[in-house]
Design goal:
Layout lengths: L3 E6 L4 E6 L2 E11 L5 E9 L8 H15 L3 E2 L4 H9 L9 H12 L6
Parallel strand pairs: 4-5
Antiparallel strand pairs: 1-2, 2-3, 3-4
Length: about 110
């Protein structure tokens, strides 16, 4: 496997890890505008043949970097991203309870979106 490129497909709500032209992992997310601007990861998926290579962690790290560059928070609803954030508090500022609640409310109002 060659180098991993991570690209943001904001329109589709996917942060994708690409190796040799193939998407090998992704974080599916949405953008929340209130109570503050935030990226909200919902699912992290790594293709079985590429598991155990640090792809999910690289995606999570890039999601937080992307949010920081855009002056946005991250409200992790994805269990993997939430656990990653707990293990990397210097790279992943915690989201407040109001932001997490707003993210859950947004998602609940859109059944079938993810």
């Amino acid at each position: 496997m060659g180098d991993i490129e991570i690209r943001d497909d904001r329109t589709a709500g996917r942060l994708e890890a690409v190796a040799d032209g193939e998407v090998v992992g992704r974080i599916e997310y949405f953008v929340l505008d209130a109570p503050e601007r935030a990226l909200v990861p919902v699912h992290t998926v790594v293709e079985p043949a590429h598991e155990g290579k640090g792809i999910a962690g690289s995606l999570a790290r890039e999601l937080y970097s992307l949010a920081a560059r855009g002056e946005a928070a991250v409200a992790p609803l994805c269990p993997y991203v939430a656990q990653w954030a707990e293990r990397h508090p210097d790279d992943a500022p915690a989201a407040g309870p109001e932001l997490i609640r707003a993210a859950k409310d947004w998602l609940e109002a859109r059944p079938g979106r993810f």
